[in-house]
Amino acid sequence: MNLKNVVLCVFGLGMAASATAQVNILNAKTPEDIGKKTEAQIAYDNDTPLPYGYTDERDVLWSKTTWEIIDLDERVNFPLYYPIDTNNIGADRRSLYDVLVRNIKNGKIQDVYVDSYFTEKRTLQDIEASLVYSDTTDLGIEQYNAEGVVDPQYVRRFSLNSGDIEEWHIRGYWYLDKRQGELKYRLLGICPVANEARSKAFPDDNIDSKVELFWVWFPGAREVLHEAKAFNRKNTSQPISYDHLLNSRRFHAVIYKEDNVQGDRDVKEYINDNALMQLLESDRIKEQIRNIEIDLWNY
User: Fold this and answer.
1) Which of 4, 122, 161, 291 could join 126 in a cystine, given CB atoms 3.0 to 4.6 angstroms apart?
2) Where in the sequence is the signal peptide annotated (predicted)?
C-alpha cells in the first residue's frame, strides 16, 4: 500500500469517527439519543468558537467598512434560510432567524440594536412589537363599542417567522494587517430583513415594506451561533456551525453601502432606478478592496 492510500484511509477513518462523535446516530439506543453527545465527547471536542485573536490598532494599515445584502432567493444562501417548517424535523436543525430570535428571548443574546451603528439598544418588548401585528375584526369593534371589551376570538395575530425573511443585511470591516501582511475581514453585525407583519394581515394589498427588524452585534452572538448547526449539502455527517459559515463567508452577498464622505450613503442614492448599474458599482467596490491587497505586494 503506497503513501497515498494510507493517507486516504486515515482521513476516511477520521471523518467517520468525527461524524459518529457529532451526531451519535450509530450508537443511539433510542431516537432521543440521536444528536446527544456524551460528556467524554464534549470534553474531547472542546467545542468553542475559534477566538479572533488580538489585533493592535497600529497594525491596521488600511480599512474599509461595508454593508452587504444576502439574498435568500439565491441557492448558495439556502443554508441561512432553511428549514422553515420545523414540525417534522429534529430540534438540532433551525434556521438562522429562529436561532437568533430564540436566544434573544431566552437572554443569551443581549447585544441587540436599532441600526448598524450600534448606538441604541433594543429591548425584547421592542423586538416583539415589530415581529407581531394584532388586528381587531369588525365583530370585535362592534363588541367593544357595545360592551367595552373584546373577546380573544375577534383579535387576529400575525407573527413573522423564518419563512418571511427575505434578506440578511451584514456589516463588516475589511482591513490590512501589516504584521501578517494580508487582507482580513471581520463581521460586525447581522440583521434580518422582511416585510412588516402587517403585510400578512392584508395580503391582497401587495404591501412591499421591507424593514430591518433588528441588528445583532455578531461577536457577542458567536457562542450561540457556534452551537447552532447549518445544513451541509456536501456531507450531512459534518454540519457547519453558523459561526463558521458566516466567518468564512460561505455565502453570496452584494455591497449596498460603504463608508464614505457623503455620510455613508447607499449605492441606490447616487445610482437611481438602474439595478444593473447598482450591481456594477457593488462589483467595483469589491474589486477596489481586492486590489488593495494586490497592490501591497507591487514594487
Assistant:
1) 122
2) 1-21
